[in-house]
Every structure is written in C-alpha cells, then in structure tokens.
Amino acid sequence: MAPLSEHPTVKRFRERPESINVQSGSAPLDTKWLRQLCLAAGADDVGFVEIDRPELADERVDIVRFFPRTKALISFVVRMNREPIRSPARSVANVEFHQSGERVNEVAHRIVTALGDRGIRAINPAMGFPMEVDRVGTGKIWIVSHKPVAVAGGLGHMGIHRNVIHPRFGNFILLGTVVMEAEVTEYQRPLDYNPCLECKLCVAACPVGAIGSDGAFNFAACFTHNYREFYGGFTNWIEQIVESKSVQDYRNRVSNPESASMWQSLSFGANYKSAYCMAVCPAGDDVIAPFVTDRAEYLRDVVRPLQEKEETVYVIAKSDAEDYVARRFPGKRAKRVGNGLNRLRSISAFLTGLRLTFQRGQSMGLAVTYHFTFTGEEQREATVIIRDQTLQVKEGHVGVADLKVTADSRTWLGFLAKERNLVWAVIRRKIRIRGSPRLLLAFGKCFPS
C-alpha cells in the first residue's frame, strides 16, 4: 500500500499556494474585505464581534459548546419590505417574514461557503427554525441568540418592544449570525444611541398588552397569541384533538377557520398572528418620514387598521392578557387556550421560566416570600419574592419565608403540566407546605396555565 504522502489528493494539497491553505491561528481577516464579502453575499449591513466581548458573557458558553473553535461572530441584517408587514392581511405579512427568513439563511450559507473556500471554518445557525427542539422544557433550544450579537456588533439597539431597531432600516429587519474560527482586524461596538423613539405605538397596537408603557414585557402573553401556530400552540392543538370525544366535540373546541389556519401553517410555514409591534414602529432613518411629517395620517393608515381588525386573540385563562383584551379591544374576541410554556422537564427550566410567565396584574396587592426546596431527581433550593407587582428569583433560601414548599421534583413538574393532582401530592407528602395554603393559591394565580 502506497504511503499517504503519495496519494494524489495529498500531493495536490501540498502543491497549493500558501495563500489558500489558511490554518487556525493565521493572521486576522481584514475587516473591509470581510465586510465586502458579506455584502456581496446579500447582507444589507454587517458587524463583527469577538467571542470574548463582555456583552456576550451570557451567550459564550452555549456558543463555544456548539462550535469550540469560535473566535469571532459575524452579525448581519436583511431588510424586509415595510408595507407587507404593516398589512392587516396577515397572509401578506407572513409571506414577507418567510421569504426574508429564507434570504437570511441563504446569505449565511453563502458567507460560510466563501469562508470555507479560503480554508476558514465557520458555521451558520438557523435564523429561526429548525432549532434543537429536543431540548424543549430543559433549556435553550436555539444555538445563538441573534439579538445580543447584533447589538454588540453595532447593528442597532432593542426597543421597548424587544425588537432590534437598526439605525437606518428600523425594526424591519431579520438577523443572522455566522460563527467562525478566524479573528478580525477590527470589531464594531454598540451604537452610542438607541434608535427607539419611545413613541409607545407598539404599546398601543399590541392586542394582548404584552408591552408595558413602563418598559415591562409579558412574554407569556406575546408567546401565547403571536406564536399560536408555532411549537407551544401546536402542542396544545394536538392535545385538543386527543381529548376530543367526537368530531362535534373537536369542532366545539376548534373552529373551522382555526383548523384551516393550522393546516396552512403546517403546509406553508408557521404564521405569526400579529407582530403588530413591528408593523407600527416608525424608528429608523428610512422609516421615520411619514411619522414626523403627518402623525395623524400615520396613526390612521398604519396603527388603527391593526387596532380595529376583528380577530381572535389567544389568551391564557385568568391572565393579564385576557383582562387587557376585554378592556382595550372589545372588537376582538379573546379565546382561552392552554399555556405552551408549562411543559417543563427540569426544575432549572421552571425557575428560569417564572420570569417569562409572571403576570404582574394578577399579583396586585401580593407581598410574599416563598422558599422552595426540591428533592428527588433534582435537588435545588430557591427563593421567589413577589412584591409591588415585581418578581425576584434567587438561589438558595434568602430572608424569612411566608410560605415554605418542599416538593419532589418530578411530582412538582407533573403538577405544573397538569399531569399530577395537587391534593393527591399533598396527601402522599410528595409536596409539603408550611404556611397558609392560600399563599400557594396566590402564587398559582400569578402564573396561570
């Protein structure tokens, strides 16, 4: 057998010019050259961030676990057409979302291909789905959080609606990220101002009141409605099918238009139900003119058609969103659905998720400190403080508890998923409480499911 060095492929490799035999640890890539490569690949703007940037501290472990060779990240934006996103016809808006999302993935693919042709290893995580959904209920299902990378790369700042606002294109953008093993000669820094105008139009347009005028954000309300036909709502729909006793029972639970809409999402891509916060945002150099030129006309043409649209709004029973729809949008019909955020598979996910599902309106008047002690498969101690319509979650037992809860971790997760009965768990001493049971009921009211 001939030695490896004599194999034709190996010999051709040895004969290549050094300029294309790029090795890990080579000189940093020229920023101007790399920027032009990304723009030529179809990006509308781009920024570069080193992996050790302090702003990425919360993301670094996950990124490096995914791609251990990561030295830098390429963040880029792709513009969307504004008018389709603003249309009350959500089919028009969703076509724009899907087509732009495909472009983001295509741009990232081209960048990785171009870098690979030069011997530079790089990977392009998806803009959105597909994700690592096998981790649902235990932790993050996405590989890279595009928003903090974009902010660190100088591509914009988060508005009060939690979308990144680009200084020129506004929030009518989708984000992409490429992680690579090479360094760059020059990195971008965050913008020295926030393009958000704090006009509160996103507050006025949101059908579920997810965006507070004080900057608070109700993640569960947004997730339950806008993402009804994504993972959480889809799972709830499947459960409704399974629980239905007959065709008529199913039709009583799910209307024909809802079934048709779910079919459409399965066939052509999941549809966003609103994204009105993005639709009405006037920030950005290319976007702001109609708003500052004639604000009344802007409200009439852009905001009110979305506010006045007759539609079904999906809410969790006895949640802040349900109260908000009835009070603010009597022309819209609220429909109670299950909470897609309660299918937790770990105590860590439960504690992290409290911040996402907390309903501050339901906590009014409550001032309680809870000590949780979890036993069994997952052993954990935590403190939950609800006071002044705010939530704090701390490791360990902090302060004096008004209610102490000791629970077998598996039983507690089953209780949250409505697979275990609380009374049964208390009788079997799988869940034990010290303090008034009313405080546990008050806790549950703040996190309706």
* Class per helix and strand makeup: alpha+beta
Largest sheet: 5 strands, mixed
Radius of gyration of CA atoms, rounded to a whole number = 25 Å
Which fold does the CATH topology of the largest domain refer to? Answer: NADH Oxidase
Distance N to C terminus: 67 Å
Strand order of the largest sheet: 11-10-9-12-13
CATH class of the largest domain: Alpha Beta
Instruction: Compute the number of helices.
Output: 19
Brief characterization of the structure:
The chain is of the alpha+beta class and 449 residues long. The protein has 3 domains: 17-180, NADH Oxidase; 201-337, no CATH class; 347-446, SCP2 sterol-binding domain (Nonspecific Lipid-transfer Protein, Chain A, 2-Layer Sandwich), CATH 3.30.1050.10.
3D architecture notes:
The chain contains 19 helices and 13 strands. By secondary structure, it is α+β, with helices and mostly antiparallel strands. The chain folds into three domains: 17-180, NADH Oxidase; 201-337, no CATH class; 347-446, Nonspecific Lipid-transfer Protein, Chain A.
List the keywords.
Nonspecific Lipid-transfer Protein, Chain A, 449 residues, alpha+beta, globular, 3 domains, 19 helices, NADH Oxidase, 4-stranded antiparallel sheet
